[in-house]
Write the structure tokens for this entry.
Amino acid sequence: MKWTSRLTSFLFVLPYLACFGLFLLFPILYGVVISLQDFELLSSEHAFVGLDNYVSIFTPGTYENSLFFRGLWTTAQFVLYSVPLLIFVALALAMLLNALPARVRGLFRTFYFLPYALSASVMAVIWLMMLDTNAGFINSLFARLGFAGIPWLTDTPWAWVSLIGATIWWTIGFNMIIFINALNEVPEEQYEAASIDGAGAWSKFVSVTLPTIRPVLLFVMITSTIASFNIYAQPFLLTRGGPGDTTRVLLINVLDQAFARKDVGSASAMAILMALLIMAVSVVQFKLTNRKEKA
């Protein structure tokens, strides 16, 4: 390859590399540096403390330890509740839409994908209007039907039901579109061969559909897990972490440590640990799925 061709190729990727370095790589590296300092937000002096911020997080009885692990446990609960639904509901919707007549398929795709285009604040306003205990649409409808209202956002387990329901409504369209594209790539000949062998709908799904879309399934599982670990908008805007601290996820605690308590160094250490945990979970998911595929 001539040097002019190499230069042209480099110039094409240069804008991406510049944005990657400026908006992703530099903030990550700077966050690591901050996590090694006593970085008070209102102080001009930031003493180097090494791993003290990390040690404090892992020392039982400290405020940082309680804040980090309580938030991590709440976040882990959300991941466990939401990720299976984000995968299987999206796959079920994709299969359902593929079974519809072609003339209405595009309409329903748009209908299910549209919420994904909304901002977090718009999503929260919609669901607050739906779920408000005193004046929400759902409880108003229940009152007209003679049923007692439900404290959707102020009591457990309803707060979790509300958060997961809002999350699925808001984000399911993205996974659904990915699954639709994957299902369209399954060779029709494989379904015909399975039909000749006497396979039913479930057997076709298990023996033909799932093995073919396995790479896409892995992608959706990992991206959904990462997104669920990074949950912030839904509990912050809908429940404010309540009732009590039951929906106070880790990112809320990290931002509270940084901007309410002004301890950016400790908050950065929590964020770095959270990022490492997400990476570890993603690697484990990838390894386990690949192992099953090879077996």
Notes: Residues 57 and 65 are 4 Å apart (CA to CA). Residues 63-98 form the longest helix (36 residues).
